[in-house]
UniProtKB/TrEMBL annotation:
The chain crosses the membrane at residues 15-39, 232-254, 282-303, 309-332. It is found in: Cell membrane. Residues 17-207 form the MacB-like periplasmic core domain. This is ABC transporter substrate-binding protein. Coiled coil: none annotated. It comes from the Bacteria. One of its GO terms (cellular component) is plasma membrane. It is a multi-pass membrane protein.
Amino acid sequence: MFLALRDLRFAKGRFALMGAVIGLISLLVVLLTGLTAGLSQQSVSAITSLPGDHVAFSTPADGESASYSSSRLAASRLPAIEKQKGVTDAAALTIAPGRVDVGGHDTAVSLFGAAPGSFVAPRGLTPSSVVISTDLADEQHVSVGDTVRIGRTSYAVAGVVDDASFNHTPVVWAPPSALAGTGGGGEVIALRTGDGFDTRAFQQAVGAKVMTTDDSLSAIGSYTAENGSLTLMRALLLAVSALVVGAFFTVWTIQRTLDLAVLKAVGARTGYLVRDAMSQALVLLLVGGGIGTLVAAGLGTLAGNAVPFVVDASTTVIPLLMLVAVGMVAALRRISTVDPITALGAAR
């Protein structure tokens, strides 16, 4: 790393500018990644936290896909479903948009209707009580023992659960009777399966569409479009970072061709020069990207109370590693094509 360290020491201003640009790019990438994860969690956390491993929907019409909002797989189908091979437990789940009156304040929520005692129902759910999400509890200052009203019926709050949002609204787990005035809603059946469960055989026998819980996220209205758009933005940012880093190192490599030629003339191998230059790029990417990532994590933590934002390894470390990898590839492309012998001839 002789040449790399020399360049870093004697061209501080130039490398500081390059590092600042890389830091800003990493800041944008990490912020967008954390926001994507936060928005995704607000859309699907109530589904991903379901204890079952499969979800059954009514068979969609031709040209349509399964949907939590349009499925009509009624609870009356439970006896037939529970008899299917590999099904260890089944529970009906009704999902409908609704409103809850909390202390005179009308709040939009997603109502999850489940039979008390079923495996999908949270602890505390009874015919006369509900369980609410932490988001609703924090926003409306509701605690266990308080009373909320759904339609004309009042229910006691029996519990508060984490990870309970659906389509960006807080979830209220309620008995099925509480959803009677909501106009129905989507009806699905959550499954627990074991050895011998065959998706195709189940679908043919029951006449339903079955998906794993993770795959069923595509059946949530806005999730696919929203997540796809934000993922595309992240990919474009990474592509821009590759172009920027590649342009930086292309110019820098052209400017130091004489140094490369001299080293080659005194016996340095091309592999050594490539490793030296790549170590320089790695230092720059790690320092600039690391600072940008730390700033983004701090801003995300501060903004977490106002906007949905997730700060963990998947939204900080992984984007940084992706940025470093893309930057190294972009830098290597130019460095590996330099011919020090030609450069020495040009210098003469």
